[in-house]
Amino acid sequence: MDDCLFCKIVKGEIPTDRVYEDETTLAFRDINPQAPHHILVIPKEHYQGIHDVPTEKADILGSLFVAVGKVVKELALTDDGYRLVVNSGKNANQIVPHIHVHIFGGRSMTWPPG
Ligand code: AMP
Ligand code: ZN
Question: Is 77 helix (H, G, I), strand (E, B) or coil?
Answer without folding.
Answer: coil
